[in-house]
Write a structure and sequence with these properties.
The chain is an alpha/beta fold and about 120 residues long. It is about 45% helix and about 30% strand. A five-stranded mixed β-sheet has the order 1-2-3-4-5, with helices on both faces. α1 links the parallel β2 and β3.
């Protein structure tokens, strides 16, 4: 399940992932991302990863297409998770996408993560 998390900062799209991501959930996130990009030209992404249960293949392909289309449009990304594999993946992401500021916070650092994604 993918749920949107509201932020007062209109540059930020927040999502909570808990289980499998469905296509309708993914599409609602993309709509929000597109709206922010239209308004600001760049977007910041905040993710709380409680539990990842996978994603349907068609949704994964759409995610890849969106990522390619908006390669340079993500300004910052933060992931809140205690999972070790998420921390390793974030380090790899930072190397591959050096133009994006990426940070990972533990679940007990949620407030710090929210502050960081919104700061100038």
């Amino acid at each position: 399940m993918l749920t949107l998390i509201p932020f007062a900062d209109s540059r930020v799209v927040g999502v909570r992932i808990s289980g499998k991501i469905t296509r309708p959930e993914f599409d609602s996130m993309v709509e929000k991302l597109e709206a922010v990009l239209q308004e600001h030209g760049k977007v910041r992404v905040y993710v709380e990863l409680e539990r990842f249960g996978g994603v349907a293949m068609d949704t994964l392909l759409e995610d890849l297409k969106f990522g390619i289309r908006h390669w340079n449009d993500v300004e910052r990304k933060v992931v809140v998770s205690d999972a070790d594999w998420v921390h390793r993946l974030a380090r790899l992401s930072s190397r591959l996408f050096s133009h994006i500021q990426v940070k990972v916070f533990e679940r007990d650092q949620e407030q710090e993560a929210k502050s960081w994604i919104c700061e100038e």
